[in-house]
């Protein structure tokens, strides 16, 4: 991990909790899926899965070495947008036409099959390497854009700096009334301009003002041309932080793989290990326990992006995901005393 900048408070990297892997459960999950369509698979070889579990645990590092990278993308030009009305309950009222090169509809059989939606008219790709049907631009974002502002909430896809794309974790105000957003620390550096990938035509609406490599979070201060909401694209956040225990089901929203859920393997006051699907572009995305945001996507347990989930056809067969605890992030912001101190969620 990077050393703190000059004048910054010295941090001690948190010790990661012990991680237990149960690949036999993954295999049983796949067997059940196959059985549901009439395919019988051989039973689990306990000796083999136990050896695999131990091999994974043996190579897991004692610090977070594999952030779910911010996507490097072609940035759209800030030109006027043309809209066309679409008749679809899944989509926003308007869809952009020939504007953002990273917003691509695919109707070929392979793309639809890999997204596990073979009968869909088309699927949406927003991050290279992802076969998931990506989240659409919500109506509320389009309406805000028509007012000349960008709307932000948990799960909003964002552009940072020259070419990075990540997902916003949480939004709210600090003790001074400043509008604040939180995302992964490896997504941006202080001074990077931020714009919504759902309404990039508005232009930059925020700036990264702080970044912490130890807890992997960045603080964004939004300007007057940004609005905040506690419910973005059906991701409603009503509570902040709180304990997570082994066995808790967590869900996340990310621009690359959308809404995915999985079981918590272990957690402490700093990080959570779970089988929540996340990949490049999902960095910073909110990790939820019900309507409570408990973390933000940080990375995988191994430094191999090819082991992350890239299609829903994988089921649970991907490396576990690490998320940063919101309690740790909020506590550290309060200790720093700058932008973000006294953070409270947006309504």
Characterise the protein shown here.
It is a single chain. The protein starts with 22 loop residues before the first helix and ends with a strand. Helices cover 15% and strands 29% of the residues. The chain has 347 residues and is of the alpha+beta class. It has a domain at 23-67 and 235-326: Thrombin, subunit H, CATH 2.40.10.10. The strands form six sheets. Strands 2-9-8-12-13-14-11-10-25 form a nine-stranded antiparallel sheet, with no helix packed on it.
Q: So what's the CATH class of the domain at 23-67 and 235-326? A: Mainly Beta
Number of DSSP strands?
Answer: 25
Radius of gyration: 20 Å
Q: What is the arithmetic mean of pLDDT?
A: 83
**What is the tally of helical segments?**
5
| H/E series | HHEEEEEHEHEEEEEEEEEEEEEEEEEEHE
């Amino acid at each position: 991990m990077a050393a703190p900048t000059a004048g910054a408070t010295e941090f001690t990297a948190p010790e990661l909790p012990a991680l237990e892997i149960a690949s036999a459960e993954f295999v049983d999950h796949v067997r059940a899926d196959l059985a549901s369509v009439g395919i019988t698979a051989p039973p689990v070889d306990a000796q083999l899965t136990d050896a695999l579990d131990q091999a994974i645990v043996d190579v897991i590092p004692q610090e977070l070495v594999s952030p779910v990278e911010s996507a490097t993308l072609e940035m759209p030009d800030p030109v006027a947008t043309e809209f066309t009305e679409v008749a679809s309950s899944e989509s926003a009222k308007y869809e952009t036409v020939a504007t953002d090169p990273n917003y691509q509809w695919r109707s070929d059989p392979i793309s639809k099959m890999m997204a596990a939606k073979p009968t869909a008219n088309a699927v949406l790709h927003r991050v290279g390497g992802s076969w998931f049907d990506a989240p659409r631009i919500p109506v509320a974002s389009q309406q805000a854009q028509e007012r000349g502002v960008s709307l932000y909430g948990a799960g909003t896809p964002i552009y940072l700096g020259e070419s990075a794309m990540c997902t916003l974790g949480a939004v709210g105000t600090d003790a001074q009334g400043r509008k604040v957003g939180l995302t992964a620390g490896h997504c941006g550096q202080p001074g990077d301009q931020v714009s919504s990938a759902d309404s990039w035509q508005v232009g930059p609406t925020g700036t990264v003002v702080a970044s912490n490599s130890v807890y992997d979070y960045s603080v964004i201060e939004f300007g007057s041309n940004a609005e905040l909401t506690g419910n973005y694209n059906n991701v409603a956040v009503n509570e902040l932080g709180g304990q997570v225990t082994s066995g808790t089901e967590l869900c996340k929203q990310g621009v690359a793989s959308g809404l995915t859920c999985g079981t918590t393997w272990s957690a402490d006051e700093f990080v959570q290990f779970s089988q929540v699907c996340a990949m490049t572009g999902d960095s910073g995305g909110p990790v939820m326990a019900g309507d409570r945001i408990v973390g933000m996507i940080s990375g995988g347990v191994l430094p191999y992006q090819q082991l992350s989930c890239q299609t829903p056809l994988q089921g649970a067969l991907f490396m576990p995901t690490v998320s940063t605890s919101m309690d740790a992030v909020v506590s550290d912001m309060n200790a720093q005393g700058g932008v973000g101190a006294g953070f409270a969620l947006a309504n």
